[in-house]
Specification:
With 301 residues, the chain is α/β, with parallel strands linked by helices. It folds into 2 domains: 3-9 and 21-167 and 267-300, Rossmann fold (3-Layer(aba) Sandwich), CATH 3.40.50.150; 172-265, no CATH class. 27% of the residues lie in helices and 24% in strands. The chain has helices at 3-7, 23-26, 30-49, 56-63, 97-105, 140-153, 213-219, 239-245, 271-277; strands at residues 70-74, 89-94, 110-112, 125-131, 154-165, 179-180, 222-230, 250-252, 257-265, 282-290, 293-300. A 7-stranded mixed sheet has the order 3-2-1-4-5-11-10, sandwiched between helices. A 4-stranded antiparallel sheet has the order 6-7-9-8, with helices on one face. A hairpin with a 2-residue loop joins strand 10 (282-290) and strand 11. Helix 3 (30-49) runs parallel beside helix 5. Keywords: Methyltransferase, Transferase.
Length: 301
């Protein structure tokens, strides 16, 4: 897959290095590589089959844009919002090549790209959306950089919609199904090639500072969220078999699934606003809570 062929608009791809981010922000932490990138690559077809309904709030935002607008979907997944309106032009990108392949098969203009280093020139789009993406980034610096990138690539007066999972879930029972990262490190999460880890009071990962359990209990925001891939799925024989062999995934014979764990940093109220506060060329024009998500609309100044 050649990105220029897929994008079909080579002039939108930046060839300049003036917006490159610092090495520590640009470098992807291991937790994202293992529990975001690798997981979505493995579950892409099954994930895509569950992602077809459009969120009313996202649909409302897209419908509010002027006809002829050029809209970027950063973290487009299977492309369910690409081509949402025949009156606008859509392009998308995602870190997962298998998800991008699905978008290509559907005829969308897409490429593989990292949300913290978008390969587009400054001021090229009329609007951008980032739907359920930022909560997969494991540091404050990377989350802020992703927002800065969304602002950078839209024109002055352009709008950006961002949604993230909230700590304040409407269905509180979901939290009991997630694994808090401040729980004691379970050996099942350790790569078999790594030395054994025992009696560790907190999960220590490259991107997450060590925190005492009392603090974790008050401000728990880091979780592993399970994805159950049914045994009958076609992809079960490839990547999932290897994942089971090396301990990256586990079987749930009772449910008939292979279970992957996805990393999430779930947001508390006001956190998105605090991230934006340090960005001089962006203003908040709307903010709201919708179906267990915190959402914000920004305008580029």
């Amino acid at each position: 897959m050649k990105s220029n062929e897929m994008l079909g608009a080579q002039e939108t791809v930046s060839t300049e290095a003036d917006h490159s981010c610092s090495a520590n922000v640009q470098s992807t932490p291991d937790i994202e590589k293992k529990y975001v990138h690798r997981v979505y690559d493995a579950i892409a077809p099954h994930f895509s089959s569950t992602r077809f309904a459009k969120w009313p709030k996202v649909a409302g935002f897209l419908n509010s844009l002027r006809p002829g607008s050029l809209i970027l979907d950063a973290g487009c997944g299977n492309g369910k919002y690409l081509g949402f309106s025949l009156d606008c032009f859509f392009i998308g990108c995602d870190i997962s090549p298998p998800l991008i392949e699905i978008c290509v098969e559907r005829g969308h203009e897409v490429l593989v790209a990292d949300a913290v280093n978008l390969p587009y020139r400054d001021n090229f789009g009329d609007a951008a959306i980032s739907i359920a993406v930022l909560h997969h980034l494991s540091t404050v610096a990377r989350r802020r950089k992703a927002i800065e990138e969304l602002i950078r690539v839209v024109r002055k007066g352009g709008l950006v919609l961002i949604t993230v999972w909230a700590v304040e879930q409407e269905d509180k029972s979901l939290l009991s199904k997630w694994t808090p990262l401040c729980e004691k490190y379970n050996e099942e999460w350790v790569d078999p090639s790594s030395p054994p880890v025992r009696n560790r009071s907190t999960t220590v990962l490259e991107s997450i500072a060590e925190t005492d359990e009392d603090t974790c209990a008050k401000t728990q925001q880091e979780y592993f969220v399970p994805w159950h891939l049914p045994f009958h799925r076609a992809e079960i024989g490839g990547a999932s078999a290897a994942a089971l062999d090396n301990g990256f995934a586990k079987k749930d014979d009772k449910k008939g699934t292979v279970v992957y764990s996805r990393y999430y940093h779930v947001f508390v109220e006001g956190e998105l606003q605090r991230l934006v506060a340090g960005i001089n060329n962006a203003a908040v024009v709307d903010q709201f809570y919708d179906k267990s998500n915190w959402c914000i609309v920004l305008e580029k100044l």
